[in-house]
Amino acid sequence: MQLQPTDALLVIDVQNDFMPGGALAVEDGDAIVPRINTLAKKFDHVILTQDWHPTQHISFATTHTATHANAQPFETIQVHYGPQTLWPEHVVQHTEGAAFHPDLHIPHAELILRKGFRRHIDSYSAFLENDHRTPSGLAGYLRERNLTRLFLCGLAYDFCVRYSAIDGQNLGFETIVIEDATRPVNLPNSVAETNLALANAKIRRIQSTDI
Ligand code: VGL
Ligand code: ZN
User: Fold this and answer.
1) Which of 142, 112, 110, 113 is nearest to 125 (CA)?
2) Which residues of the chain have pLDDT under 50?
3) Mind listing the pLDDT tens digit for each residue in 150-160?
4) Ligand 2: distance of its center to the CA of 147 in Å?
């Protein structure tokens, strides 16, 4: 595949808490770090996202234990904008868990986009928060810079990569997921649903060797 100057690599949430041993560990999450470093060298434009939650964030199961007797990590509850899966406390702002994996090496990355920083709205997608309305500003940034095709990698395939890809495609960017440079959280059905959602949105999945 021939890369173009209008392409950007979007590296989603390669942070310590999503690595084996972290607060919201993704199995084998660290295996993609060297692969992402290699991929990034091929792109003129690289953007990193960083999940960045305040304490008592709406996505933390512990935030809801007073009001939802059985609020447990990995269960879904209804909040003011619809369903929200609950998670262990993770990527709390300015903690070591929120830092990028120490081996992630992309010195030419041009933007670090933080998301999920509002206590009352989670944000899986790099474009829109989980109310599916509040924009992050990324679409405007990309359009203003004439970056029209997006390649996505990082964590996790079935949450933040999935929702970023769908929103990116819906907002008019040609969006491609580099599957072997992602790993899933893997809740019941989450990978199958993601495969289907990406296919329905006409989002291509490729391998890092295709680039
Ligand atoms: C993510 C769950 C909660 C992700 C972030 O990066 O996919 N998943 N917060
Ligand atoms: Zn999060």
Assistant:
1) 113
2) none
3) 999 999 999 99
4) 26
